[in-house]
What we know:
The structure holds two protein chains of two kinds.
Chain A: H1 9-19, H2 25-32, H3 36-48, E1 52-56, H4 59-64, E2 71-75, H5 77-89, H6 91-102
Antiparallel strand pairs in A: 1-2
Helix pairs in contact in A: 1-5, 2-3
Chain B: H1 6-13, H2 18-41, H3 47-58, H4 60-75, H5 77-90, H6 92-121, E1 132-139, E2 144-146, E3 148-149, H7 150-159, E4 163-178, E5 181-190, H8 193-198, E6 204-205, E7 220-223, H9 225-232, E8 242-245, E9 248-255, E10 269-272, E11 285-293, H10 299-311, H11 313-316, H12 321-328, E12 332-337, H13 338-343, H14 346-378, H15 380-388, H16 393-426, H17 444-469, H18 474-482, H19 490-526, E13 536-542, H20 551-566, E14 571-577, E15 587-593, E16 605-611, H21 616-620, E17 624-627, E18 641-645, H22 646-652, E19 662-664, E20 673-679, E21 694-697, E22 700-701, E23 708-709, E24 712-719, H23 726-737, E25 743-748, H24 749-756, H25 758-792, H26 794-802, H27 807-835, H28 837-841, H29 852-878, H30 882-887
Amino acid sequence: MGQLFSLTYPTAAVLLAIRHGHRYGFDLMDATGLPDGTVYPILRRLERRGVLEGTWEDEAAAQAEQRPARRYYRLTRVGEASLAEVTERFPALVRAFEAPERA
Amino acid sequence: MDAPGFRLIAWASRLVPPARRADWRREWEAETAYAWRSLRRGGSPSPLALLRLRSRILTCVIDALWERKETMTMTGLFNDLRFATRSLLRYPAFTAVAVLTLALGIGANTAVFTLVDSVLIRPLPFRDSERLLALGHLGREGQDQLPISEGLYLLYQKQASSLESVAMYGPTVVNLVAEGEPERVPAQSVTPSFFEVLGVQPAIGRTFTAEEGRPGAEPVAVLSDGIWRSNFGADPAIIGRTVDMNGTAYRVVGIMPEGFGHPNREARIWTPFVVDPVRAPLAAFAAQGIARMAPGSTLEGVRAELQGLIARLPELFPEEGQATFLQGVGLKVNVLPLKQAVVGDVGRTLWIILGTVGFVLLIACANVANLLLVRAEGRQRELALRVAVGAGRAQVLRSFMSESLILAALGGGLGAAVAALAVRVSSGFVPSDVPRMAEVGVDGRVLAFTGAVALGCALFFGIFPMVRYGRGDLAAQLREGAGRGATGGPEHHRLRNGLVVLQVAMALVLLVGSGLMFRSFLALRAVDPGFDVEGVVTARVSVPSGEIAGRLETAELFRTLRDRVAAQPGVTAAGLVASVPLGGSYAFGSIEVEDVPRGPNELPVFAAQNRADEGYFEAMGIPLLEGRTFQRGDGAEGFRAVVVDEAFAKQWWPNGSALGRRLGRNGPDDEWWEIVGVVGVVRQESLEAEPQPTVYFTTTMGPAGSPAPTRTLDLVVKTAGDPLQVIPVLRRELRDLNPRIPLSNPRTMQDVFDSATARTSFTMAMLGAASGIALLLGLVGIYGVVSYIVSQRTREIGVRIALGASAPSVRRMVVRQGIALAGAGVGLGLVAAGAMSTVMKSLLFGVSATDPLTYAAVAAALVAVAVLASWLPASRAAGVDPSTALRAE
């Protein structure tokens, strides 16, 4: 697979966090523990490259909670494929994300 | 519903490009609102949690900036430049021509600016140099330029409160003997205050103490960094040791820092200028004066105070006859800022040259602008397409500007390299009388200038496509332009024709300038200097009194040297003179004419004076008109003979012979000198200056009882063969006589003559190169426009030929267009050149600034060039095949 984006540690962390069900910008900041200012630029870049896909959550659900609809991110097929490389290159990171799930 | 942080998000969203803005803001607001709700759901939040959320919201600015940057790089300036580069690369020939033209123009400007900046603009390299002054005097209503005398120096030093310190200095040359080898070294004798006035500290050791500037002190010396390195191996232990100069032991007390020197960096050793406070003469103006103004004083203040002191001279020095004498000549103080005094009159030449290369740059820019316009036309379809897919006018114009910027940047970069090279190579050609050459170099200021010039160029030629497409409905213009049989519109023709007319006009101004300089140069070369240049060498010999104290022995050494040189094979004549013509020095002095006694209150007659003896006039080829030249036995100790030139003889004895008449030097009571010969007039001072009536005394002067020899004389040798081969012979002969006296500055009279025309030939070369480039660019400009017109009118020409127009008539029609353009340019140029003639006047010699011949020749040359430039396109037009032309497009 051609190098679509440079797979840095923060990028890998964001991809893994999304894989593990964290989908919103602020949630991803909490889940990855990355500095707040770095997460959104990573999301923007990955979305532009087609690794992620951003979607607005259901208006009705948000209305029910009297708040605006949030934008969530999920992996595209390309993103799913890139996880193989994440697993290969950052095994410790993968373990760190899996640990709390088991707990 | 507003949550805390929404204001910030709204503000930051303005950074986000419009297309993304709404979504971006919505996402951040949603996240923020959700976060606040979650935080409050668990009761009242801890201050730490609040702070964390607030700081998280703050990062929206980072995200917004990231979005902005990303969009910018995609569609903004960066993209423009990338696009422009690609489009320039698609037309390599155009790009190369444009860049080279600009590099030439910008390079020439940078090189000349380097010179102007170093010589004229930058302050002198001394502390608070704006407070430094040159102190001089004027006598007899400005007829006499007098430097400063020891008496006046002491007076100003003591009394002038507007001056912080005053110093005197004078050039000298010392015979430095180190390890047995004598060497003539340029030096300066300076008052101890010299270093203080200039505000320079020695690098090692000290400068002179006040005591060392008084009689009877131990001889001391300060060395320049250069001689310390070259002759003393940069050994700091030289401080305190003595060196042998002029046969005297001088103790070295200090080393000056590298690059120090005033008024240039020639002096390599400084020795104290000894002033006797008791017997300092008031009226012997023997040295140059400089001063440092006291803080707060002004030039006018200094002038007024010193003039006031001069007015009080008789009162301050009641017993001095000299004070009254100075009053008699109407002594005036002449105070100038030191920089102005150092730079002198070279400024005008340099500014004119800078103006000249500025013109060249304008012409180059006009050329590039024209090329860009041609190219813009070629790209109309492409541009129309871009507009059609939604590019705004701003974007199209920006792409023009980006191309201009890239061209200018490339031209500027290459130009700076050209300039650095030119400055390195040309510093050898700059005439030696241009001051401060040692300070010249390309530096940050110069590069800033280059940058500014390049940017100016980009704006200049970038503006033309803007004018062309900047108004009205761009899409409509482009549709029209890209359509069939486009003519470009009359307005567009006007723009391009105007540029060519301007180019031709500027080229004409430059050609007139260089034509006038060329005629000056010819006139200068045609001046009869009054002596023969061929086969003559000259070299200076100086006998310090420390070496040979005896007066008669000194005179004898010179005489023996002359005889031995004259006896060499190949030498046809040899003689000695105090200063060779055009050699840079000439003297004036008062003369008494026995036939014309002067009254007690009358000022003495001033005349140019030189000293020569046996063989000089013969060696120099100066014609003898009457009587005889000097011979053995003439001199203060023998027969007191003088030779005068024709001008002097005519001035005093217009109707009779000057032979046998008598002249005196030191008042009517002195012994008289008899005129034995009349010789031809010689240009002693310069080729330009009218020669002054001149009197030649012998090389020994003074009373017959104790004749004083001249201690520095120029040996002049006429040879039958190659004059340079004589120089080693001269060295050998002098070494045989006294190995401690060196021969200095040997050169041919041809060299002396050439350097007298150096400034004119330098200016001529600069103007010539500039106008050559201008002519070439003008040729290219006319060619470009005419061929463009032909290509636009191919259909029309085809119709004409089909209707029976002959090939010559078509050719004539096209050439006429070229001539019309050139004619308009020539007309405009003649007016401009006439208006600028006053600027040139001071540089010219023997030709009027409005010389009709030059103007006519240049105008004719430019029209001829126009014919030449339009001939090719004209031939192409004449060869148009009507059927093809009509079918095309």
